[in-house]
Design goal:
InterPro entries: Methyltransf_25, METTL2/6/8-like, SAM-dependent_MTases_sf. The protein is of the alpha/beta class. The chain contains 13 helices and eleven strands.
Length: 352
């Protein structure tokens, strides 16, 4: 009799656990159902930017079709000249000022439409962040002191580690952070100037007001009222967001963000670099100003150089820890196409 009952109980238990996983859409919840510790760093993608590791390097051009992607690709002079020729063509004339002003005034509306259309299906979760910024992992986070705890009047004040993500989108960074920091010693602030994006973050089953606070905010505006005091953040994440802002506002935006860092706190930056495939693909008439373009959906994008980023961050009083170019070669082996991506990754620290 026992043998006839046990298989049914096991199957029903499995389906109950699967149903809970399907509702939560969280790997950590699924593994907790099975009483297994989930390691969010085990299967994550790695940008292969470590100086001690070459990643997957293309050493023989004949091997280009053997993989879908190659790391740390070196450009020769001919490739640089070809990129400059394409850029000269699509930037030969700038957009009319009145049209450009429309994209500036309605920037949040264009992004709001973008998120209304794509919701959370466009950007993949950024688990690779824990490789590039190990300070984000829970084992590196210290808990708040007992004195701080007695003074705390909100969950964020109990946190020993405070993170702000600007331009959070639908949570491709926020939710991996919440999954990784299972010890609940950190608190994540996240903002976006598209109300639809923040709405999608808050409607996610993994959104926990005790550990996260999402709010609508345009960080390019002057004197933004943040839901935390100045000099209180450990890390600020600026990932593919500064490029959506008008270049005239870069300096004031970085200065404003640097004021929110506590001494020793860091800004982690990753965005598009010069001659990225996306920049070279723009058609004439889409250029607002040098290296600043409008996409077909009305959203804007800027392509950075290392030197200008160094001037921006150091001009805000921050100390450089990292400023590297990540050149990737993506390969479509079916169509025999090669695509060159260029990103810049930086890490700057506020002096103690």
């Amino acid at each position: 009799m026992c043998f006839s009952i046990m298989p049914g109980n096991i199957i029903m238990g499995f389906f109950r656990r699967y149903k809970k996983f399907a509702q939560s859409k969280s790997l950590s919840s699924w593994f907790s159902c099975l009483h297994i510790r989930y390691d969010p760093t085990r299967f994550r993608k790695k940008p292969a930017l470590k100086e001690t590791c070459d990643g997957r390097t293309l050493k023989n051009q004949e091997d280009v079709w053997h993989h879908n992607a190659w790391d740390n690709v070196v450009w020769d002079e001919k490739q640089v000249e070809a990129a400059e020729a394409k850029l000269k063509l699509n930037s030969s004339s700038f957009m009319d000022e009145e049209v450009a002003l429309k994209y500036e005034k309605e920037a949040s509306q264009f992004w709001d439409t973008f998120y209304s259309t794509h919701e959370n299906k466009f950007f993949k979760d950024r688990h690779w962040l824990f490789t590039e910024l190990p300070e984000l992992c829970s084992e590196h986070i210290e808990s708040s002191s007992a004195t701080d705890a007695t003074k705390a009047s909100a969950p964020c004040q109990l946190a020993g580690f405070r993170i702000l993500e600007v331009g959070c989108g639908t949570g491709s960074t926020v939710f991996p952070l919440l999954e990784a920091n299972t010890l609940k010693k950190s608190f994540v602030f996240c903002c976006d100037f598209a109300p639809k994006a923040v709405e999608l973050v808050k409607s996610n089953p993994e959104y926990d007001p005790a550990r996260c606070h999402g709010f609508v905010c345009d960080i390019s505006e002057d004197n933004v009222k943040f839901p935390f005091p100045e000099n209180s953040l450990d890390v600020i994440l600026v990932i593919f967001v500064l490029s959506a802002i008008s270049p005239e506002k870069f300096s004031s935006t970085i200065v404003q963000l640097s004021r929110q860092l506590k001494p020793g706190g860091r800004i982690f930056f990753r965005d598009y670099g010069r001659y990225d495939m996306a920049e070279l693909r723009f058609k004439p008439g889409k250029c607002i100003s040098e290296h600043f373009f409008v996409r077909g959906d009305g959203t804007r994008v800027y392509f950075f150089s290392q030197d200008e980023l160094r001037k921006l961050f150091e001009g805000a009083g921050l100390v450089e820890e990292q400023n590297v170019i990540d050149r990737r070669l993506l390969v479509n082996r079916g169509k025999q196409l090669t695509m060159y991506r260029v990103w810049i990754q930086c890490k700057y620290r506020k002096p103690t």
